[in-house]
Write a structure and sequence with these properties.
With 157 residues, the chain is an all-alpha fold. The protein contains six helices and no strands. It has two domains: 1-78, no CATH class; 81-157, no CATH class. It has helices spanning 10-28, 34-45, 52-71, 91-112, 116-125, 129-152.
C-alpha cells in the first residue's frame, strides 16, 4: 500500500511549508526554526526548556518523517543519502568528512542564530536583513563550493 508518492511534489510541499510559517507568525508571532527546536529538545531532556512547544515540534517533525517512510511508495527503503560519496572516497574517510561537516553545520547554525532553512523561510519572509544576508551567504557559499568540487573531481561531482 503506497499512500504517499516518493517524493511529494514541490507544488504541494512548498505551499504547505509557507502556510506553516504564516500560521506560526499569526498564532504565536514566532519564527519556525528546526535548529532552535532541536536545542529545546536538549534543554527539555535537561529539564530546562523554555519553549516546550518547540521541542514537541521537533519530535513531531522526526515522527512525521518516520511515518512518511512507512507510507512511501514501494515500502521501506533504508539507504544513505550520500552513497555517491563512497564512489570516490573510502567509506571511513567519507564518514569522518560527513561527521565533521554535520558538526560544523550545527555549530554554524547556533552561531548564526538559526539554520539555513530558518533564515531562508522565516528571516526572509519577516524582511529581516540578517536573515536575507544569511540566506544570500548560504547560496553564494553553496555555488562556490559546488564549482570547486566540480573542478577538483573533474566533473564527477
Amino acid at each position: 500500500m503506497h499512500l504517499l508518492p516518493n517524493p511529494l511534489p514541490w507544488f504541494v510541499v512548498g505551499p504547505l511549508i509557507g502556510l506553516v510559517v504564516v500560521v506560526l507568525y499569526a498564532v504565536a508571532n514566532r519564527p519556525l526554526g528546526t535548529s532552535v527546536a532541536y536545542h529545546q529538545v536538549v534543554l527539555l531532556l535537561r529539564s530546562r526548556a523554555t519553549e516546550v512547544w518547540r521541542a514537541w515540534y521537533w519530535i513531531g517533525l522526526v515522527g512525521g518523517c518516520l511515518l512518511a517512510v512507512f507510507l512511501q511508495q514501494g515500502g521501506i527503503h533504508l539507504r544513505l543519502g550520500y552513497s555517491f560519496v563512497s564512489g570516490w572516497l573510502p567509506a571511513p574517510v567519507a564518514v569522518v568528512i560527513m561527521l565533521a561537516s554535520g558538526i560544523a553545520m550545527g555549530y554554524g547554525a547556533r552561531w548564526a542564530g538559526g539554520c539555513t532553512t530558518g533564515h531562508g523561510l522565516c528571516g526572509s519572509s519577516a524582511r529581516s536583513w540578517g536573515g536575507i544576508v544569511a540566506t544570500g551567504t548560504f547560496f553564494l557559499t553553496a555555488i562556490v563550493i559546488t564549482n570547486v568540487f566540480h573542478v577538483v573531481t573533474g566533473g564527477r561531482m
